[in-house]
Amino acid sequence: MNPSSVRVLTGDRPTGRLHVGHYFGSLESRVRLQNEGAELYVVIADYQVLTDRDIAANLPGYVEELLLDYLAVGIDPERAVVFTHSAVPALNQLLLPFLSLVSVAELQRNPTVKDEIRHSSQAAVSGLMFTYPVHQAADILFCKANTVPVGRDQLPHLEITRTVARRFNERYARPGEPVFPEPEALLSAAPLLLGTDGGKMSKSRGNAIALAADADETARLIRGAKTDAERHISYEPERRPEVSSLVLLAALCTERDPAELAEEIGGGGAAALKQVVTAAVNERFSPVRARRAELARDRGFLREVLRRGNKEANVVADATLEQVRTVMDCVY
Ligand code: ATP
Ligand code: MG
């Protein structure tokens, strides 16, 4: 595919610092696509923080943490558009026609939403929880992105986006002139990195190794990671998910083959595995950590990056909303 015809949208909730699962699941692909010449849009999904909690705590602080993580891993503010949901009204307005294109049953059977409800801190499930995958359709389609580098948890949501795009085109577009593309998910080699408790690594589940963690914190977290009762280390993702996810993390950091690396550690057991993983993570991310610390000294620059991104996202969203209202015959 010609890189200049690739438009990428992806993003993260401002609920904490980004972790190594984000890096190998999505950030690395974002930076690679950007550097190959694709257009990159990154949404800081502030409204979606409210899917699983009553109050979005510390939003300005977490937004800043995300910006630092993005810039530290190589997202280039000169080329990429980084924006927050709440600053782009026309994007949010797309949610209304889009909601009319999906059924309640389709929303209720989404397996990722079911998993998130299980982990939610709320006593009651909000309407936003069921509808946020349609909001994500608005995130992706407002800029007509065709490529979405995401982790495996996002696949059901991307299917909803594709459904929304297809149905919108069928219902409202002139034949041969689709308004929206049907975007493709781009899964990396690590679409579901596990956290230290053996569940999906997540920034709000207390099981994550943050990109910005220091060497000691990284060592402590990995020391406490769940493994299993078998001594010999092997790479068998289906049968031994926790051990294999640790092997994979070390392999990704060192650009090695996970099966070969596991073989080498072999009889050293979990203790040797954890040492290898700790050294690999610390070495791989030490330049990122140094850049992040440098960037953290200039908060004014971070705000400027976001201000520019929000401005640009509004121009794109306004144009798309105008087109949507035109084809829906809502221009008076
Ligand atoms: P939270 O616990 O607040 O939901 P999160 O860690 O799940 O945080 P998100 O902001 O929900 O992070 O997800 C951002 C992106 O990172 C999505 O594309 C998601 O698929 C990807 N991602 C999240 N966790 C992982 C993981 N463990 N492995 C691979 N990709 C992941
Ligand atoms: Mg999540």
Keywords summarizing the entry:
332 residues, mainly alpha, 3-stranded parallel β-sheet, two-stranded parallel ribbon, 13 helices, binds adenosine-5'-triphosphate, binds magnesium ion
Rg result: 21 Å
> Number of helix segments?
13
**Measured distance between first and last alpha carbons:** 40 Å
Helix/strand-derived class?
Answer: mainly alpha
Order of strands across the main sheet: 1-2-3
User: What proportion of the residues form beta strands (DSSP E)?
Assistant: 5-15%
> Roughly what is the average pLDDT, rounded to an integer?
97
Overall 3D shape:
globular
What small molecules are bound in this structure? Answer: adenosine-5'-triphosphate, magnesium ion
Main sheet specs: 3 strands, parallel
Low-confidence stretches: none
Element order: H for helix, E for strand: EHEHEHHHHHEHEHHHHH
Find the count of extended strands (DSSP E, 2+ residues): 5
Helix content: 40-55%
Question: What does this protein look like?
Answer:
The protein contains 13 helices and five strands. By secondary structure, it is mainly alpha-helical. A three-stranded parallel beta sheet has the order 1-2-3. The protein has a two-stranded parallel ribbon with strand order 4-5. β2 (39-44), α2 (59-73) and β3 (81-84) form a beta-alpha-beta unit. The chain is globular. The two termini are 40 Å apart. The structure holds adenosine-5'-triphosphate (ATP) and magnesium ion. Adenosine-5'-triphosphate binds next to β1 and α1.
